[in-house]
Amino acid sequence: MPTARNTTWAASTGEPGAARRDRRPPYLLGCRGLVERHDAPAAKTSELARVHPLEYIEAIREASPRNGIVHLDPDTAMSPHTWDAALHAAGAAVLATDLVIGGRADSAFCAVRPPGHHATRTRAMGFCLSNNVAVGAMHALEQHGLSRVAIIDFDVHHGNGTEDIFSDDERVVMASIFQHPFYPYSGTEHVAPNMANVPLPAGSDGRALRAAVRKSGCRRSTNSRRR
Fold first, then answer.
1. Closest Cα partner for 217 from 194, 201, 200?
2. Which pTM value belongs to this model?
């Protein structure tokens, strides 16, 4: 698994020093003065535990090898550095939430590995150990007192882990837009009123995406939770 330092990039709010930038990823070149870089902290156990049971967290921690590679499943491997990277990936979501809700940034992008949206409450899969976006969403709800959170998951794969965590949680609405059939071979049914799945055939263009979103009721799901 990658061991590079995880990073949160935040859109500048014009604070002093916002123009001093370095080591920007290629897709942020040309954004000098518009974004600022933050090193992601490690997520606390209490922050992970809002999403994953303590028994699961401890089992993943104990599975971390001192050397070599261990496989949690055929796709999900751990090196001696993976657990630390996973903690910082989840911590990036927490930091991004703090920056935006605290008014220190207009928006944030977390450039992190391992990813997260396949990790269910109790299972690591698809390269994912902790569900980063779920950790961030729960931080917004529990720490900052938000009443509603929307998660838009657009990826070649269905966000099965995030769906598992938030199904029937009325505080969260989620839309997952993904290629189907493809790993993890889920998402063809709407499992809960707050979940909108939008499976698309390989090679679908923008018009197909818009038509599928309208047909899925995704827009109605998000609008119905506005006050």
1. 194
2. 0.87
What are the domain boundaries of the chain? 1-146, 147-227
Note the CATH number of domain 1-146.
Answer: 3.40.800.20
Given 52, 88, 118, 158, which residue is catalytic? 118
Pairing outcome for strands 35-39 and 7-11: antiparallel
Print pLDDT tens along the chain (227 aa): 333 467 777 764 443 333 333 455 665 666 667 788 999 999 999 999 999 999 999 999 999 999 999 999 999 999 999 999 999 999 999 999 999 999 999 999 999 999 999 999 999 999 999 999 999 999 999 999 999 999 999 999 999 999 999 999 999 999 999 999 999 999 998 899 999 999 999 999 999 999 988 887 665 555 554 44
Give, in order, the Cα–Cα distances in Å from 195 to each of 152, 190, 227. 10, 6, 19
118 is catalytic: yes
* Token pair 């049971």 in the structure block, residue: 53
